[in-house]
């Protein structure tokens, strides 16, 4: 029992670390795509910008306001997709979506800090907070593929 409590505490610390010291926060001046999305239910909003070249997400930044879940998720997501092929970033988004829906994900998959958001799936009202940045990323990358 205590190991589960320790894991929950660790996950909370990871989430708060990303919230207080967000990675990749800012505006990407030379981005190829900028997406604005919000969650009208709670007021979270995000502006996500990408630089995609030759099918690789070279850079990704975000600006926005919201709860610790939405902002830390954006920080984790930008870290996770930088340097990845567009198709791999979209696959990771699908895995994250499955995790948020409580579906089983491959335990051998190294999700890094993103794993800390797993517990959000137990709180349906917070799932939209966690997935906002990911949905913005999907929209941005999918629109980019059509150009």
SSE arrangement:
Blueprint: H1 2-20, E1 33-39, E2 44-53, E3 56-65, H2 68-81, H3 86-100, H4 124-146
Antiparallel strand pairs: 1-2, 2-3
Overall geometry: globular
Domain module tally: 1
CATH class: Alpha Beta
Q: What name does the CATH topology carry?
A: Sufe protein. Chain: A
Average pLDDT confidence is 90
As a whole number of angstroms, the C-alpha radius of gyration is: 15 Å
Rounded to the nearest angstrom, the distance between the terminal CA atoms is: 52 Å
Major sheet size, sense and barrel closure: 3 strands, antiparallel
Helix content: 40-55%
Portion of residues in beta strands equals 15-25%
User: What structural class do you assign from the helix and strand content?
Assistant: alpha+beta
Run of helices and strands: HEEEHHH
Low-confidence stretches: none
Strand order of the largest sheet: 1-2-3
Architecture, CATH level 2?
Alpha-Beta Complex
Task: Give the total of beta strands.
Answer: 3
Q: Figure out the total of helices.
A: 4
């Amino acid at each position: 029992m205590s190991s589960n409590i320790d894991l929950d505490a660790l996950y909370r610390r990871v989430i708060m670390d990303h919230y207080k010291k967000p990675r990749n926060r800012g505006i990407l001046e030379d981005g190829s795509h900028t997406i604005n999305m919000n969650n009208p239910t709670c007021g979270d909003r995000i502006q996500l910008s990408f630089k995609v070249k030759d099918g690789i997400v070279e850079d990704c930044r975000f600006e926005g306001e919201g709860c610790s879940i939405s902002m830390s998720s954006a920080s984790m997501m930008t870290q996770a997709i930088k340097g990845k092929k567009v198709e791999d970033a979209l696959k990771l988004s699908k895995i994250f979506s499955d995790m948020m829906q409580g579906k089983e994900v491959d335990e051998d998959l190294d999700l890094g800090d993103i794993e800390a958001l797993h517990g959000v799936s137990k709180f349906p009202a917070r799932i939209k907070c966690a997935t906002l940045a990911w949905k913005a990323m999907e929209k941005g990358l999918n629109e980019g593929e059509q150009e």
